[in-house]
Amino acid sequence: MSETWFKEKIAPPEDEEDGCHPDEAEALETYCNQGTEASVAAKAITSRIESSDNPGYDRPRLWGLLQDALIELPETQ
After folding, report:
1. 4 closest CA partner among 76, 72, 77, 75
2. Which one, 21, 25, 37, 72, has the greatest CB density within 10 A?
3. CA 27/CA 25 separation, integer angstroms
4. Which residue has the higher pLDDT, 61 or 13?
């Protein structure tokens, strides 16, 4: 998956519900490019939701990113 793919998953400022948070996309991209271990990536990807006052609100956005990534992952990973 390319850098462009990850950038396209980030929600635009005017519509936060149409994508994920930039930190989530960045953490997943770093992991997919073998820049971090799974446990570190998992903490980084979920840190926004864990610290949220309303985690249920942001959870679908993160799930969307993770679902898209699983579909797009190359067979080599």
Report:
1. 72
2. 25
3. 6
4. 61
Residue for token pair 């948070």: 21
CA dihedral 39, 41, 44, 50 (to 10 degrees): -50
Residue pair 23/44 in contact by the 8 Å Cβ criterion:
yes
Amino acid in position 5: W
Q: How open is the CA angle 7-67-35, to the nearest 5 degrees?
A: 55
47: pLDDT confidence band, cut at 50, 70 and 90? very high
The predicted model scores a pTM of 0.83
From residue 48, alpha-carbon distances to 1, 19, 54, 55, 74 in Å are 23, 14, 10, 8, 27
Backbone angles phi, psi at 51, to 5 degrees: -95, 0
Half-sphere exposure of 69 (CA within 13 A, CB side): 27
